[in-house]
Design a protein that fits this description.
The protein has a four-stranded antiparallel beta sheet with strand order 2-1-4-3. The chain has two domains: about 220 residues, no CATH class; about 120 residues, Roll (Chitinase A, domain 3), CATH 3.10.50.40. The chain is built from 16 helices and four strands.
Length: about 425
């Protein structure tokens, strides 16, 4: 059956922080100005967002407001991180330096599209700075994993190219260009906010008490209901997902279903259901007729599973029927199911998996609460009204192995039901 992929809210917040932040060019001793007026927002949208997101913002005022709110949240975290000294950490310093150089390289390449850096120039740079590459790898383990062999040589070469072009950009005064300053604000804030949120995640366990866990469990017991069922699937040749979450590919189901049309599958399933209703052994019929390769050899058995594990129609029947009851035909994207509920239970809080599920959820809530608290109390101002000019030029590429750093995420869309 199909297992939906549920992305944790914490992960979404971290990804957003890594993609959408802004800052003004600064000296090491002066704090950044994290406020974004309309002009800076216009630069942000025109220089950083891809054309598809620009078009969305140009035609939807609500998305402008959502983007501004998300940016305020992100900038507020970066500002707090800087105040708490994160900019003095070696790993953060290294990230800020790299991201700033990336912004300068992109500015230089935009002004000089035909620029070329020779292998000899790169070699000369590394010879003149013999410890810089290794120091960079030590401070950035996400690059270190990719810095071996031929791939590593390629990344090292690009690292040298970035440094050389960034130096040229500074000599040409591009670090004082307003669009480049906006770009560098993004890069600095990315490093600060990622480090800050990372520390919040590491310490989140301490914020979740046994009392919190027990209270959540008692107030949300429906989330921990589990069902054990047998089922018989009569598949169709209709299109399915590439994989159903239990390792059954479209080809598996189609072959097992012998290419039946929807009506043929329904008629066959009804015939099997009639035999079930007359008292024939369900497990034996599943072994004979089911087109689910993952369960038919087990008499159609699916051991205990929780809510959210199966496609909605299958799940509804599994938790609506009582133990011992058999469903009518249940239609899903895979065909027609006959479902017999064997047993239902509520997972115990003594179960480690259940407990960890609650801990992770509470950690996410507390992390989100802390981020919201920071944003609500922040003095950061982000303009909600700004001009949007849709360009045809895609955002620049980034260094292989680095985290995305160019574009803020699009405003959230309503989830499809």
């Amino acid at each position: 059956m199909k297992t939906p992929v549920k992305v944790g809210l914490t992960v979404a917040v971290v990804v957003a922080l890594a993609l959408a932040l802004i800052y003004a060019q600064m000296s090491p001793t002066r704090s950044a100005d994290y406020n974004l007026d309309a002009k800076k927002m216009e630069l942000l949208v025109s220089e950083i967002l891809p054309p598809t997101q620009q078009q969305q913002l140009a035609t939807n005022p609500d998305q402008k407001k959502q983007l501004a709110q998300r940016l305020k949240e992100l900038l507020a975290i970066a500002q707090v991180a800087e105040r708490e000294g994160f900019a003095d950490r070696d790993d953060v310093k290294s990230q800020i330096a790299l991201q700033t150089d990336l912004a300068l390289r992109e500015a230089y390449e935009k002004k000089n599209p035909d620029v070329k850096i020779t292998d000899e120039e790169v070699s000369a740079y590394h010879q003149a700075h013999p410890t810089e590459w290794n120091a960079f790898l030590e401070a950035n383990p996400q690059f270190k994993a990719n810095a071996q062999g031929q791939q590593g040589e390629g990344i090292k070469k690009e690292f040298g190219q970035i440094k050389l072009l960034a130096d040229r950009a500074r000599k040409d005064g591009l670090d004082q260009d307003e669009a480049t300053k906006v770009r560098m604000l993004i890069e600095r804030s990315q490093a600060l906010a990622r480090a800050y949120v990372g520390d919040l995640q590491k310490n989140a366990d301490k914020l979740v008490t046994d009392a919190d866990i027990e209270l959540y469990y008692n107030e949300h017991k429906d989330e921990f209901e589990e069902a054990k069922v047998r089922h018989i699937l009569v598949g169709t040749k209709e299109e399915h997902s590439a994989d159903d979450g239990h390792g059954h590919s479209k080809d598996d189901v189609d072959k097992a279903g012998k290419g039946l049309t929807k009506e043929q599958a329904r008629q066959k399933a009804q015939g099997v259901l009639d035999r079930v209703r007359k008292g024939e052994d369900f497990a034996r019929l599943a072994q004979e007729f089911s087109d689910d390769p993952g369960s038919k050899d087990k008499g159609g058995l699916y051991d205990f599973f929780g809510r959210g594990s199966m496609v909605p129609e299958f799940e509804k029947a599994s938790f609506t029927l009582k133990p011992g009851e058999i469903s009518d035909l249940v239609e899903t994207e895979y065909g027609y199911h006959i479902i017999k509920v064997e047993e239902q239970r509520t997972a115990s809080l003594t179960d480690q998996a259940t407990r960890q599920k609650i801990v992770e959820k509470l950690k996410q809530e507390k992390l989100e609460s802390r981020i919201k608290e920071i944003a609500d109390s922040s003095s950061v101002q982000v303009a909600e009204e700004f001009e949007v000019k849709v360009s045809q030029t895609p955002p620049p590429q980034i260094m292989p192995g680095s985290s995305p750093h160019g574009a803020p995420p699009p405003p959230p869309q309503e989830e499809k039901k």
